[in-house]
Specification:
Layout lengths: L1 E5 L10 E6 L5 E5 L5 E2 L23 E2 L11 E7 L3 E8 L5 E10 L2 E7 L12 E9 L2 E9 L14 H5 L3 E6 L6 E6 L9 E4 L3 E5 L5 E7 L2 E5 L11 E5 L2 E4 L5 H9 L29 H10 L7 H9 L61 E7 L22 E4 L8 H4 L6 E3 L8 E2 L3 E2 L12 H7 L5 H11 L17 E4 L2 E5 L12 E5 L2 E4 L5 H10 L38 H10 L7 H9 L55 E7 L4 H4 L16 E4 L17 E3 L9 E2 L3 E2 L3
Parallel strand pairs: 1-14, 20-23, 29-32
Antiparallel strand pairs: 1-4, 2-3, 2-12, 5-6, 6-9, 7-8, 7-10, 10-11, 12-13, 15-16, 16-19, 17-18, 19-24, 20-21, 21-22, 25-28, 26-27, 28-33, 29-30, 30-31
Helix pairs in contact: 6-7
Length: about 750
């Protein structure tokens, strides 16, 4: 009995083949490692001529044989026979019942086995001479027998006894191999010699996979074994659970533009979408990842390359390894400003994609390496995996080679990309993102896997819809066409009947403000009394704000593309777009919001008023309850910004997301200015009755609440979440507001 472990992390390698080849006879003796990396192999009878007990017949009952030789020194063979497969335990005890050596602990098939005990304990230390008990447990079968270890001066050579020399005389060649590991070969070994080590250490496999058109891709091995998948961070990542995977290979780099072009030239792939931030058609980006490709595009490419998309579980293991790291490079977060040494991402001071305003060259950041040496597993582009998205899949996912296929309208993306991001949360290896498979985005690409499980993938697109969509080259136009074909109502044309003058009333009384589970500025959670007030049921619309501008009291919000490095971002601003009159006004400063509320004979709500209106008095996490958000409740980054519409929605579109008092869009659509100045420690010292922070402090930042159309992270949409922001910021299209007033 022995084991196979990986030199990288010392973790067991499951599914590896261990083969002993008798150099004299050429006979092969082969087995595979279990989930714990252990193996048992039955080698040939080496001492039958000098008294070895005969083998039981194949149909014999389960039995524990007599050890031979007995007494012994230095080696004894313990034989046993299984009539059927069973979970087997074989241990050696001293006469006081203390365990000395654990020899076998795994499921074995029916057959005859011979296990060698070398007179050492579990720490491989020689034990004292004396009488020992060996015990076999196989299913419901239990048996014990005795054997005697002589002191080190004794040697047995008498006729009718089993001789250790007969055992160590045989020589074997040993091979250990499996998917994802380099083959280990050892020649002229003596398996029963005391110095022979049955515990093998192997290294990761590497292979250069030729592509059909003459190029190649470097694949790195991820050996079979177990790891903990998921986290407790978000509901769709819970619960963390142990997953066992077969070995597989994964591309070290994301599929590059030049590789994908070869597939297009071969007629096996369609052209990606084009347009701003897409790499297709740009000769200077051949070494960048292919982006603006749908899930079907990615699947076709991998199939053409002789590979497949990885499963979600494979992707996560490749990204974080068996150490349980939060990020591919370890547990050090990238920080709120981003980390361009480890990921091509949004970085304060550099902009999107670390200044590329798009993707960067694939594999250009060595510090991004995962435990297995894979690059860009966080950042650059989100990567399609084969699985359908299911929020609650982890609760009952199978423990071995899990994959979810054929039951959903959205696929899973992993790894995040170069576009806007909440770095510490969104770059985690456990983070999951959902997207309809027939979508093309500049921040989405792929990498391929090889070997491992065979997946019966039957998903095919609506060929008519896909064919018609490809008549639109620009990624935004293509996505909008598919959305209409799939029955999604364009956000700009939706009409929500409501009284735009309506406010909701919040009675006086206490509520629990903040949370102990949130960021530092949300603590401590405390009871706050808030006097009665009224708050707008919906965010202030473009049409409402326009009336203030026409009166001469308000200034125009920002509009157009001039302020943005990517011109398509200008499409997110609502001012000056007649079809968006019922959308929230956005790209407004705190001062513009404050001026409007005064003009309307109202005021900005205090931070405490806003939070009470959002979550009520029962302490729920979100306006609608405690379940993490999706587009059933709010307008968020879910399948693309603004629920895939790439814009805000008309106010009040998400009726299911109403707060306990009936206020709408308190989470999502746009962030909302409140009256307070921000202070990290305000909850520690602020009053508990009608708190309002009127001190700018050193930061001179105001508070925003509620999250927006561009936020994926569920924690951002919590009713308790606070964002500090400069009050003069006027280009941020994710910011709007609503007003409040005190009843007369």
């Amino acid at each position: 009995m022995g084991s196979v472990r990986l030199d990288l992390d010392g973790q067991p390698v499951s599914g590896a083949t261990v083969r002993f080849i008798d150099r004299d006879s050429g006979d092969l003796f082969e087995t595979r490692t279990s989930a714990s990396g252990s193996y048992v192999v039955s080698l040939p009878d080496l001492a039958t001529s000098i008294g070895e007990p005969p083998r039981p017949p194949e149909d014999a009952d389960t039995q524990l044989g007599a050890a031979f030789p007995n007494p012994f020194n230095p080696l004894a063979v313990i034989p046993f026979h299984l009539s059927r497969s069973a979970q087997v335990g074989l241990q050696v005890y001293d006469l006081l019942g203390r365990r000395v050596r654990h020899l076998v602990g795994q499921e074995l098939a029916a057959g005859t086995y011979r296990i060698v005990w070398d007179g050492t304990n579990d720490r491989r230390q020689a034990v004292a001479a004396g009488v020992y008990i060996y015990r076999l447990v196989a299913g419901e079968f239990t048996a014990t027998r005795k054997l005697t270890l002589l002191d080190g001066r004794a040697r047995l050579h008498s006729p009718g006894s089993w001789s250790p020399k007969a055992v160590v005389r045989a020589r074997f060649d040993v091979e250990v191999w499996g998917t994802g590991i380099e083959t280990l070969r050892m020649a002229h070994v003596q398996p029963f010699a005391p110095e022979f080590k049955t515990h093998f250490t192997v290294s990761l496999g590497r292979r250069e996979a030729p592509l059909p058109a003459g190029d190649s891709a470097l694949l790195l091995g991820i050996p079979g074994g177990s790891f903990t998948m998921g986290s407790r961070e978000y509901q769709d990542e819970s619960p963390p659970h142990l997953v066992s995977l077969d070995g597989f290979f994964l591309q070290q780099l994301e599929v590059t533009q030049s590789q994908y072009r070869r597939c297009v030239d071969a007629g096996a792939c369609f052209e990606p979408a084009s347009g701003e931030a897409c790499n297709w058609g740009r000769d200077d980006r051949d070494d960048h990842p292919a982006n603006c490709i749908s899930w079907y595009d990615a699947s076709r490419y991998c199939r053409w390359a002789g590979m497949r998309l990885p499963t979600e579980a494979e992707w996560e293991k490749a990204a974080r390894g068996t150490f349980g790291w939060s990020y591919p490079w370890g547990n050090t977060p990238p920080g709120g400003a981003g980390d361009c040494d480890r990921a091509i991402m949004m970085r304060a001071g550099l902009g999107l994609g670390c200044g590329h305003d798009g993707t960067g060259p694939a594999g250009s950041l060595p510090l991004s390496a995962s435990p297995y040496g894979l690059l860009d597993m966080a950042g650059n582009v989100w990567e399609w995996v084969v699985d359908d998205y299911d929020r609650s899949y982890y609760a009952d996912a199978p423990p071995e080679n899990p994959v979810r296929l054929g039951s959903g309208t959205r696929k899973v993306l992993r790894g995040n990309g170069w576009f806007y991001v909440d770095p510490n949360a969104d770059m985690r290896a456990a983070n999951r993102y959902r997207m309809p498979p027939l979508r093309w985005y500049p921040y989405v690409g792929a990498r391929c896997a090889a070997s491992g499980p065979t997946l019966a993938i039957t998903a095919v697109p609506d060929l008519d819809t896909e064919s018609e969509a490809r008549r639109h080259n620009d990624w935004r136009q293509r996505n909008r066409f598919v959305q209409r074909q799939e029955g999604e109502v364009p956000a700009a044309s939706a009409v929500i009947p409501m009284d735009l003058e309506e406010m909701v009333s919040v009675p006086a009384g206490p509520f629990r403000m903040g949370t102990e589970d949130g960021a530092g500025d949300e603590r401590p959670e405390r009871t706050v009394f808030v006097s009665a007030f009224q708050i707008d049921r919906h965010e202030v619309t473009v049409a409402e704000y326009e009336a203030c501008v026409q009166s001469g009291s308000c200034t125009e919000p920002h509009s157009g593309s001039e302020a943005y490095r990517l011109r398509f971002e200008g499409d997110f601003t609502n001012w000056g777009k007649p079809e968006r009159g019922l959308h929230p006004v956005n790209a407004v400063t705190w001062f513009q919001a404050n001026t409007y509320c005064k003009w309307a004979n109202k005021r900005l709500p205090t931070e405490a008023e806003w939070e009470k209106a959002a979550r009520g008095t029962e302490g729920q996490r979100y306006p609608w309850g405690d379940e993490d958000p999706d587009c059933e409740w709010i307008v968020m980054d879910d399948g693309g910004d603004g629920c895939g519409q790439e814009s805000t929605w008309p106010v009040g579109s998400k009726l299911r997301g109403a707060s306990p008092y009936g206020a709408l869009d308190m989470s999502g659509n746009v962030w909302e200015w409140v009256a307070d100045w921000w202070s990290r420690d305000y909850y520690l010292a602020g009053p508990t009755q009608d708190p309002l922070n009127t001190e700018p402090g050193e930061s001179e930042l105001k508070v925003l609440r509620g999250g927006s159309l561009a936020d994926q992270n569920p924690h951002i949409h919590l009713a308790s979440n606070r964002l500090a922001y400069g009050p003069k910021s006027r280009f941020d299209y994710t910011i709007g507001f609503r007003c409040a007033r005190t009843p007369e």
